[in-house]
Amino acid sequence: MPIDVNCSAWKGFRTGEWRHLVNVRNFIQKNYTPYAGDESFLAPTSERTRKVWDKSHELILEELHKGILDVETDAISGINNFAPGYIDRDNEVIVGLQTDAPLKRIVNLYGGMRMAESALEQYGYTLNPEIERHFRTYRKTHNDGVFDAYPHRTRVARTVGLLTG
């Protein structure tokens, strides 16, 4: 179904193939204008942003020195598995770190248990044994699902190196 370009939402856009079918690439090609100017149109950094960045910069330098600041080993990755985290709560406008502390790493077991355990071991951490037991009993990693779908002969071919991927 063609897009009604007479609609006020489309005023000022150049027409193209995107009008007749879903074609985001064509829409962008027809309507994108490169910016060749400089940064003079930008507002200067606000005091709040500078304070948040200064704290972030200190943490990044600390992490570079230590290798890693912290890892959460009592919860695995998930959109709502952590309390809100802040860098500088009083100065943040946009909030919501992935964990409850800046640069604190999450454990993602869905990509593979061995890989997660190896990464934790490199930095001197171990996964909470109860989480490991629960995950091995009730969940599947991506790799487990893939390998479970392979017939026996395919698993054997992978084991001896005839197949990869």
Q: Tally of extended strands?
A: 2
Shape estimate: flat
Largest sheet: 2 strands, parallel
Measured as a percent range, the helix fraction is: 25-40%
Task: Label the structural class.
Answer: mainly alpha
Widest sheet: strand order? 1-2
Tell me the distance between the termini. Answer: 40 Å
Report strand %. Answer: 5-15%
* Succession of helices and strands: HHEEHHHH
User: How many alpha or pi helices?
Assistant: 6
Average the pLDDT over all residues and give the rounded result: 88
* Low-confidence runs of at least 5 consecutive residues: none
The whole-angstrom Rg is 25 Å
Architecture overview:
The chain contains six helices and two strands. The protein has helices at residues 24-31, 47-66, 113-122, 129-138, 142-149, 152-159; strands spanning 70-76, 104-107. It has a two-stranded parallel ribbon. By secondary structure, it is mainly alpha-helical. 39% of the residues lie in helices and 7% in strands.
What distinguishing features does this structure have?
single chain, 165 residues, mainly alpha, two-stranded parallel sheet, 6 helices, 7% strand
Q: How would you summarize the topology of this molecule?
A:
Layout: H1 24-31, H2 47-66, E1 70-76, E2 104-107, H3 113-122, H4 129-138, H5 142-149, H6 152-159
Parallel strand pairs: 1-2
